[in-house]
UniProtKB/TrEMBL annotation:
GO cellular component: endoplasmic reticulum membrane
Main subcellular localisation: endoplasmic reticulum
The UniProt record lists the keyword Heme: yes
Cofactor (UniProt): heme
SUPFAM superfamilies: Cytochrome P450
Subcellular location: Endoplasmic reticulum membrane; Microsome membrane
Superkingdom of the organism of origin: Eukaryota
A single BP term in Gene Ontology: xenobiotic metabolic process
Family from the record: Belongs to the cytochrome P450 family.
Organism per entry: Phallusia mammillata
Annotated protein name in UniProt: Cytochrome P450 2J2-like
Amino acid sequence: MSVRLGSQPTVILSSYEAIEQAFIKQPIVFNGRYTTFFTKVATENAGIIFLDDLPKWNLHRRFGLKALGGGGQLGYSVEMIVREEVAQLCDKIKEKVNQPFVLEKDLFLAIANVIGVLTVGEKPTETKHEALREKFLEAITTLRDDNFAYMMMAVLPWSRFIPPISKNFKHMLGTRDRSNECLYQIIDDHASDIEVKHPRDLVDLYLTEILDKKQGYTRKHLQHNVADLHVAGTETSTSTIRWALLFLVKYPEVQEKVHQEIDDIVGKEGKISLHAELHYTRAVIQEVYRIEAVVPLSVPRRTTKDITFMGYKIPKDTQIIPNIWKVHNDPAVWKNPEQFQPERHLDSEGKFVKLNQVIPFSIGQRNCMGENLARMEVFLFVVTILQKFQLCPDPQDPVPKLGALFGVFHSPEHYRIVFRQR
């Protein structure tokens, strides 16, 4: 359907076929990034997520994929970094077994540590730049808690002059500037002792390109690349894992099957392989991706020229929004889509089937750059926690609700879990 969001002509694609036709089969036309007043101010026309300059975007995306794949790690694989954070999180859970508590903050910091090590070589929880840790967490919290104001500014830029949105706007500018200052300090520290032949992280890799005078690489882009990866790579994985744990609490019969499969295939003390044949467990995770898409409308794209698409004329510079939520809840594809049914992702022999119609990271050239990392994190965190603990509801809330917070990210409401040692 076509709508106007403020003054912005917008086309919303609400079927997998339409999204595939646009993003896979005609990527050149649908590869632009729709930018708004808010995105321009927040990112200063740099970074990766909202960068519309296609040659620069291609350059930085290829670079980002290399860094997220562990290109700057000496002696460590990305998997090893994730496993270390999972183990430390489980140690924290052990300290609070048999009592209801909110896992959200500890889980969030564990995910943030993974991104921190890959990008700046430091965990936000341990960095010598204490100010960065505080400002980074402030930036994430601001994005999550003030996102209604941000969406208003994206659609109606003049709303930034109206209280209380004007207050949110000033807060956003202050948070951006403080975060930039901290990140510039980290970049300067890296530049002062960089070893070109032994890069430690994404910042070292990028500074090497600058030293080699590669065209398109600037400190401004580097700073916003790091910020983009932190913002996009923490809240999304954290929310997905929190949704998974919440569903397992709400449906104990599903949790029991997952426990049994892990015990049979891996064992209670065995090392969890990314390739372990945990078919039912993978079906559970894919059903979580389907039923609770964390970014239900993805990130808007832009048509780069006039096009006749599926019988309709779409002008150049039209905003294109893929309605992932509708794709995941289309009754023509999913029987009883509102019901949590992991079995829908298994074939007749009980084998896991990765379905094309589940697209939580979008598809095409502009899909989420951190998809492989996110899938690894979700799998290892969920399976390791379930290997070691039984998840029980808070006695004061024995039937947990599947409520979500309003905002850009579709995150679950805050809830408490009782972990019991297995």
